[in-house]
Amino acid sequence: MSAETSVQSAGSFTRLRLRFRDWRGSRPFWAGLFTMLGGVPIAYFPYATLKLGTMSIAMATTAGAGSLIIGVLLFTLGLTMWFQQATRIFAGVAAIVLALVSLVVSNIGGFILGFLFALIGGALSASWAPGKPAADAGRRAASQDPAGDGGAGTAPENAAGGPGEPHPLPDPVHGAGAEDSNGGYRVG
Question: What InterPro entries does this protein map onto (predicted)?
């Protein structure tokens, strides 16, 4: 073993962690995770037999097949959110609908636990939008002065966001096109 061995393994772990962080940041990761976690209790509880001492509790109902189908579909939708970002809105809406259907079909949506996870995952997926590339953010930061107001000598075309950028929306409280410090528009 050399002195560099531990550095290389720490470096590979850091590289893997950073690669995973980049992969996670480019897709609705938490939406997919919550949706998959929501499918597990919905599919599991109708087939589970819980033991409390000598007493066994079985939740076998006539809706067992429906619960299994909903659980598998939610798990599949979660994977779809991860690997097919173009269908994230459809997958989010479908997850919300399946979560609502699970309330009736699957033992109150997997004892509310699966329902809540699937509902949150579907909402996160439907509302997720891909971020802007880092180069675009750096270009916008360089075009503004440190105060963030564009400076007194800013040309009118730069005040509107420059070519290829959306025109700022009027803000009745803070003036036309007021932006916050990170370039997003203020709501109120």
Answer: DUF6114 (IPR046096)
